[in-house]
Automatic annotation (TrEMBL):
Belongs to the GDA1/CD39 NTPase family. The lineage of its organism: Eukaryota, Metazoa, Chordata, Craniata, Vertebrata. This is Transcript variant X2. The keyword Hydrolase applies. It comes from Nothobranchius furzeri (Turquoise killifish). Keywords: ATP-binding, Hydrolase, Nucleotide-binding. ATP binds at residues 88-92. The keyword Hydrolase applies. One of its GO terms (molecular function) is ATP binding. One of its GO terms (cellular component) is Golgi apparatus.
Amino acid sequence: MNYFKRIGLNSDGLRVCIGQTEPTEPKRVKLNLQQITKQNHRRTAQVLVLKRFLSFPPGISAWITINFLTGGLHSHGSTTVGMLDLGGGSTQITFSPRDEKTIQDSPVDSIRSFQMFSNTHTVYTHSYLGLGLMSARLAILGGPSSPAVPGSSTELLSTCLPAEFSGTWEHADIIYTVKGQEAGGPAYEACRSIVEKVLFRKVMKASEAADVDFYAFSYYYDRAVDLGVIDEKRGGTIRVSDYVQAAQTVCSRVIRGPLQSPFLCLDLVYISVLLQELGLPPHKQLKLARTINQVETSWALGATFHYMETLKRP
C-alpha cells in the first residue's frame, strides 16, 4: 500500500484517524512501526518523512503556500494574506498579526514563529479538529458524538434539510438515513439556532481577522461554486454576507431544485455562522482560488518548503 497516494492533498482524514487511534492503540501502533522498520527500510523512511510533514500545522503550511504564490514571502516586510480552510474533518485560520496586542492576547499555542526563506515569520494559527464541514454536518443532524460501528445504519431527522427529503448519507463508513423535518417557523432561523448551539464556545474570535485580507479554500470554494458566485476553474471573490443571504434563500425554498444538494441549506448556514464566529464581519470579502499563476494552492507545497528548511538545521 502506498500511504502517500492514499492520503491525497488534504490530511484531514489522517489527522482524525491518528487522533482517534493513538490514545487507545499506542502499543499496536508502535509494534506496527517496528515491523515496518524490520521489513522495509524504504517504507520506514517514508513514514518518518510523513511524520515530519504532519508535525507542522496544516494551517501554516497552507499559509506558506498562498503567500509564496502571491509574493508575500519574497522579501522582508512584504504584505501577507491570511488563510481560511474548511476541510471535511477540521477547519483552520492562519494570518500574520500586525498588532503586538494580538500576540499578547492570543493563547500561547495559537502563536507560532518559524524560519522561511531566511526570514522569521510569526503567525496566529488555530485548527479546529471536528469542525470541518462533514463532521459539522453529523453534529448538526444530531448524530452520535462517539464513533458508531462501521456498517451500521442510523436515522437522523433535521429541520436543516428540506421537509420532503428522505435519503441516505455516508460518513466515516457509517450509512445514515436522513430525513427533513418541518421547522414550525422560518427554516433558516431554525437551522441557524442549531448551528449556533453546535459551535457554542468552540470557536475563538481572532483579533484582527476583520482587517486581514483572506484567501479561503476547500468547502468555502466548493459551496461558492454551487451558488454560481464564482467560476469553478477561475475562482473569484465572495463576501460573508453572500453566504448568509444564500443560506436564507436556499433554506426558505419549499421545494429544492432537481440538481440542488439537500444539504445546501445546512452547509451554507454552517459556513456563514462559522465565519462570523471566527471574527469576520458580514461585509468581509474573501478571495477564492484553486490555482495562482497555474500553481495549485495546496498545503503540500508549504509543507515541502518547511521540510526543506528543517534539512538546513544542524
